[in-house]
């Protein structure tokens, strides 16, 4: 199904994929250049149905408040907090854009997509308790993390997370940190609100059910060929293309043929959750509680028990249980991975595959887990969990980046990366977490690469400062700016503790 607007055959920009990334980029570009014409192409029948869909992700407003993989322990025993600071600041930029749009009435009520839910880290075992204590010491004096509380007292933890502490062995060393001002984000609802806003603006066309079949150079422009459901293929000629189709961005980047895309590959990882809708249990847990990944597990498999608030209803999710598939999208094809091999990425793909063979075995092991084995993993968090209260649900598909490496041939990289042509006429977003939470920072980086001269102009700087008050400044280096902007976003978005 497509929108009723007539196809604009020569738009200024074509955005592929109707998830949180394209929605964010579209909003920013129309704010900066109101006369810009945009076409957004989505292959599925609705927007925000892949990784942005509420049930396809954990909904954690990733601010590094509880995610232990963002604060690794170094060889000398110290804690590296640099990534945590970077991610926290990036999430604050996202909140500032959302607050501006809420103030303007663009997104409606913030409660429709954002809720305050405390963020906790929980560990057990002496070694992990010591790690969490050091992590808290390394973070607690930074302006971003001064709210963080640390405890080894089981009674305090029982108040913070009664479901997790009930019937736990009193002799087991445990510790937790808590930040009350954490968030749960319904990225599906947020994306849909942003897309609806864009559809009302002049010069914006949104088409669903339109698969992109090809992307190629046409002189100084780009041609994007789209195949609508039940209609003939058509072409769009444009000056700028954004490939924001989640896992589907890699094949499109390869089609484009730009030198900057050479050597990239993708390693697909699926996920599963145990979901609980039992009101009696749901009412006893109001937090996002993250633990430590088991030895050999990938960073995206950090176990966590989450309060989710979707369409006003609370549920619990536990997981994720990782899985292996050759699909690049949840709605994709089993041929996605084998078809992605190219002469330029063959060595990086094979080298990364061999170097991460244990990861592949781990993922396959996760796929063949029995319900009883999943329950045992859940019981590490909820000791008295019963299988009848939980059911298996499938998460979205993630594609981790594989790229060239001079020493190793190829490496598997976790995180996100913007790949753009030298002239800035096309860009793709590859990778996964913490993606959605840091969408604003990532899209500002992309705009800076693709519209460098305009981004230097005072006009664009003023517009961005009006939308994102901390734009162009370091909140980490300016605690007063952080305090002021955070108080403002908390007020507007209903996050005051």
TrEMBL record:
It holds the Pfam family Mqo. GO terms for biological process: tricarboxylic acid cycle. It is an enzyme of class 1 (oxidoreductase). InterPro entries: FAD/NAD-bd_sf, MQO. This is Probable malate:quinone oxidoreductase. Its cofactor is FAD. Pathway: Carbohydrate metabolism; tricarboxylic acid cycle; oxaloacetate from (S)-malate (quinone route): step 1/1. Its EC number is 1.1.5.4. It catalyses: (S)-malate + a quinone = a quinol + oxaloacetate. One of its GO terms (molecular function) is (S)-2-hydroxyglutarate dehydrogenase activity. Belongs to the MQO family. Keywords: FAD, Flavoprotein, Oxidoreductase, Tricarboxylic acid cycle. It comes from Luteolibacter ambystomatis.
